Fold Sulfatase maturase.
Amino acid sequence: MSGATFFPKPEISVTNPASAAAAMAAPNPSLFSGSRTLAGRLTDAFLAVRSETERRAEPLTPEDQMVQSMPDASPTKWHRAHTTWFWEQFLLGEHSPGYIPFHPDYAFLFNSYYVGVGPRHARAQRGHLTRPGAEEITAYRRHVDAAVVKFFHDTSDKMLAGLIPLIEAGLNHEQQHQELMLTDILHAFAQNPMAPAYDTLWTSPAPHAGSGWTRLIEGIHTIGHQGDNFHFDNEKPAHRVLVGPVKLARGLVTNADWLAFMDDGGYRTASLWLMDGFAAATGEAWEAPGYWRKTADGWQVMTLGGLRPIDANAPVCHVSYYEADAFARWSGKHLPTEMEWEVAARAEQLDDAFGMVWQWTRSAYSPYPGYRASQDVLGEYNGKFMVNQLVLRGSSLATPERHSRVSYRNFFYPHHRWQFTGLRLADYGA
Ligand SMILES: [Fe+2]
């Protein structure tokens, strides 16, 4: 197999074509604006992120916003409220003396998983809440928006500067929920025989996928976040790893590739699958990626634009780790580790690393060497999930602008496939 050898240098900014990559070159991008004061810059950043949440909710009716189509997916209304609660709980409640919460019950209703904050409504029952209605959540958001902006302007620069890490965490947290709003409503719409479109004009991003392989020679490389710009705690500490020799596919696995796997009986061949994976595939009657529907006109797939014909050249999407692993075995290849992925991405060797599909790696979601979650309540953000999940790298078509990093570690359980998840292959052959 042919492939160019490359000698990756650590800490090279990725400059992939996808829009998400552009943000990676700018540290704390959401805090850069034309305002001359810190309060002004924080206000601009805050309102930009808050308005993007509402922009994503805008096409949805109050009925759409209430649906919870499975326990892992939350209603749009809940996402809008929970992200608001985050500001109320961690910024206003902690740092704005005299702030009175919008409603005394909302801390219970809209806390997600923060045990240190107190009891909370059951995750699987978020879709049971007809009240408060979508309009009340809009009022809640406006109340908190006004209080946060007032807080920014009433607070000294010295105190605000000390709160920037918390504010950035709030912005990035809300951006994560913006992606979930799309993944969750797509799951709900995909259960609907009418196949409603989130946006009839929606188009999938065009892949830039190159072909062939890039060769990573054996060497020691630094991975993990370095520098002072925003990052989640799970991206640190940066540390050195031995990777290679290995070849990574420059492009993502496509729907055409996946159809070949299906046509070869991939979903029915137990020897290709992990035991838990085959149990999931048979138990859930998987015969294709998530949201694919067999019609008289052939396979179609439910997208944010509604039901569309399969695009053979597009990256396969909505596959679980189990499916990705089986496909890799069928191909005679492997899934890369997250370390291999990051080293190759830093060297700009991967096409469509960002902005298309999250890419499964075979790396367990574990702490980097020496990692400890912080002792405050936000220490619950990432650290307590570091077991039984797999790392995904890159970003997806639903990831907000300026929310991607080469060191970003996403994570899901191996059976999950409602996220925008795909894969690229690794080859350890000669
Ligand atoms: Fe959250």
Observations:
- The chain is about 35% helix and 10% strand.
- The two ends are 8 Å apart (CA to CA).
- Residues 22-190 form a domain with the Four Helix Bundle (Hemerythrin (Met), subunit A) fold (CATH 1.20.120).
- Confidence is low (pLDDT under 50) at residues 1-29.
